[in-house]
């Protein structure tokens, strides 16, 4: 019996290590490739750890296109999206959980199903709409959805969180003469900080990693995001994998950093949104 | 006596009209607070869907006036007059019906492993989740390099082990299987949702089996899998919905090639709308996607009420 347990345990570890290798190796190989020179790309057998680290690959890759500008564009879009989602989704969740009004739950149900509609289904009319307003090739179509609640998960998660906050708190505040805006801003939102952090992080990822949105709405190069910059790069440096991996690493690093800082929140957040969505 | 009831009555009327007023006020504030999402629903979902349906019956490209065509766009798709529709449907079905079941099995298995009492559990969880946070456009690029037929590390390692190598993304027969393999790299979300579900299974059920002398295998078959049925179902349907919308990977890695073998449905939709500027026809393609996804979404709502068991949910509240 005991020996069996030991065998099972080692098997579990073995499989976990193999899975981890599968998950990690591509990232390691990206970093490794970003630091070698073009000759080492085609060297056989390849060295796992390169002899000389070519840090200037990064400079060369970033100089090839205005990556600084793309970076700033991505950063602006992401920041505005996070602000928009945090503000609008919490206001809406407050209305759907802490306020009593007629038809509230019915409307919430309808919106819930509606917001499940994938972007591809509404992409063409949305383009036509923004185009008619003269707003294609600006950041507005990329940021606007965030200011409209930013998706079903955010509102659902926050509403769930708000419902768990004791009613007595609002009532006490009401007796003291506080209005809804005060209760929202000074009681409910501070208490739901945890959920707000999760939503902020998920919005960061969705916005920073977005590829399709910019591809559909942004046309001129000065408005490109980092993802578009990367494909631009791919077009002209397709054989120089070391430079390409350097450019890719620059895009991956911010996501990695955010993940390393807030790993726990991410995993909890996915679990929360996933089950209940 | 009389005086007190009168007083009570008048108080009652004051309270009632007051509460009606208050209800109206609450309705106003409620709608005001909810207005961002209400406006978003109207502007970004409801009107666009109506517009999609309308445009799908027209010939429309940006800058032109939509011209009514009736069902011509749909006829064009289904009759095969459009040479890309059926290849796109075929590629997507191939991808979805292989990657989803395999992905569900793999991620359920991974969640079981990550749920064991082992050293470094949260570390392993972090690693398995890590690929999800990498921008898909970036990881597509990395995988292209890994799978490069001549100088890629994967073929090199296979050669080293005397295993057959492959053209991977470069060959008509191997391109979809390669993309399926890549899809396994980003199963972290599904794994985490499974994990949360596994943690919701009450411990006393396992103890009961242990007392009866059941093995780990019995626990899996009689408790873990049945108790996870709701989440397995949920994850499967979500995976199908997402699978129908694979876009970034083929867009970055293959552009639909070779020979349209990886021209997935939404890539085809995007090309039709934005590259060929046939927005009417693209709308018809989008409407069909909408129908399929609406069907799958309805399945979630329908089955989640009857089929599945939600003890985990009850315990969490």
From TrEMBL, chain B:
Keyword Transport: yes
Keywords: Cell membrane, Membrane, Transmembrane, Transmembrane helix, Transport
Regions crossing the membrane: 27-55, 93-114, 126-146, 179-199, 220-241, 282-303
Sections of the chain in a coiled coil: none
GO (cellular component) term, any one: plasma membrane
Keyword Transmembrane helix appears in the UniProt entry: yes
Subcellular location: Cell membrane
Annotated InterPro entries: ABC_transporter_permease (IPR051393), MetI-like (IPR000515), MetI-like_sf (IPR035906)
Gene3D superfamilies documented for this protein: MetI-like (1.10.3720.10)
Membrane topology: Multi-pass membrane protein
Coarse class of the protein's main subcellular location: membrane
One of the protein's GO biological processes: transmembrane transport
Residue ranges of domain ABC transmembrane type-1 in the record: 89-300
Family: Belongs to the binding-protein-dependent transport system permease family.
Protein name: Spermidine/putrescine ABC transporter permease
The species this protein was found in: Paenibacillus donghaensis
């Amino acid at each position: 019996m005991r020996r069996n347990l030991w065998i099972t345990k080692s098997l579990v570890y073995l499989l976990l290590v193999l899975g981890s290798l599968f998950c990690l190796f591509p990232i390691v190989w990206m970093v490794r490739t970003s630091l070698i020179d073009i000759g080492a790309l085609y060297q056989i057998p390849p060295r796992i750890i390169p002899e000389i680290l070519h840090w200037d690959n990064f400079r060369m890759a970033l100089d090839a296109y205005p990556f600084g500008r793309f970076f700033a564009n991505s950063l602006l879009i992401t920041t505005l999206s996070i602000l928009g989602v945090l503000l609008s989704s919490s206001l809406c969740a407050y209305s759907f959980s802490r306020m009593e009004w007629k038809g509230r739950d019915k409307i919430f149900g309808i919106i819930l199903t509606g917001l499940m509609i994938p972007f591809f289904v509404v992409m063409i009319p949305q383009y036509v709409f923004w185009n008619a307003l003269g707003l294609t090739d600006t950041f507005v179509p990329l940021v606007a959805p965030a200011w409209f609640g930013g998706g079903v998960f955010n509102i659902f998660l926050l509403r769930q969180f708000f419902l768990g906050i004791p009613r007595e708190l609002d009532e006490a505040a009401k007796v003291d003469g506080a209005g809804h805006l005060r209760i929202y801003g000074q009681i409910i939102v501070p208490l739901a900080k945890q959920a707000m952090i999760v939503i902020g992080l998920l919005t960061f990822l969705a916005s920073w990693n977005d590829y399709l949105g910019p591809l559909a709405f942004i046309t001129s190069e000065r408005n490109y995001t980092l993802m578009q910059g990367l494909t631009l790069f791919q077009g002209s440096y397709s054989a120089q994998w070391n430079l390409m991996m350097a450019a890719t690493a620059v895009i991956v690093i911010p996501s990695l950093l955010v993940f390393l800082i807030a790993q726990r929140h991410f995993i909890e957040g996915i679990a929360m949104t996933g089950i209940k969505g | 006596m009389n005086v007190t009831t009168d007083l009570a009555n008048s108080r009652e009327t004051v309270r009632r009209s007051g509460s009606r007023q208050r209800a109206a006020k609450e309705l106003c504030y409620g709608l005001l607070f909810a207005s961002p999402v209400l406006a978003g629903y109207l502007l970004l979902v409801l009107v666009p869907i109506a517009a999609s349906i309308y445009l799908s019956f027209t010939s429309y490209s940006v800058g032109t006036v939509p011209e009514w065509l009736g069902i011509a766009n749909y006829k064009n798709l289904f009759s095969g007059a459009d040479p890309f529709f059926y290849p796109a449907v075929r590629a997507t079905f191939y991808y979805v019906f292989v990657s989803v079941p395999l992905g569900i099995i793999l991620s359920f298995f991974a969640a079981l492993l990550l749920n064991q009492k082992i050293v470094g559990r949260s570390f392993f969880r972090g690693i398995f989740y890590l690929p999800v946070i990498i921008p898909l456009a970036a990881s597509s690029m990395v995988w292209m390099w890994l799978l490069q037929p001549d100088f890629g590390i994967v073929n090199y390692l296979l050669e080293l082990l005397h295993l057959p190598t492959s053209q991977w993304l470069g060959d008509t027969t191997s391109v979809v299987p390669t993309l399926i393999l890549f899809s396994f790299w980003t199963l972290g979300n599904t794994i985490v949702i499974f994990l949360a579900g596994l943690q919701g299974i009450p411990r006393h059920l396992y103890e009961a089996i242990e007392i009866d002398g059941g093995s780990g295998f019995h626990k899996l078959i009689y408790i873990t899998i049945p108790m996870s049925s709701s989440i397995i179902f949920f994850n499967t349907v979500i995976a199908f919905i997402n699978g129908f919308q694979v876009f970034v990977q083929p867009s970055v890695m293959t552009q639909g090639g070779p020979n349209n073998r990886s021209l997935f449905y939404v890539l085809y939709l995007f090309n039709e709308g934005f590259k060929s500027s046939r927005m009417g026809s693209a709308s018809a393609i989008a409407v069909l996607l909408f129908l399929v996804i609406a069907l799958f979404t309805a399945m979630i709502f329908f089955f989640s009420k009857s089929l599945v068991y939600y003890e985990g949910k009850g315990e969490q509240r």
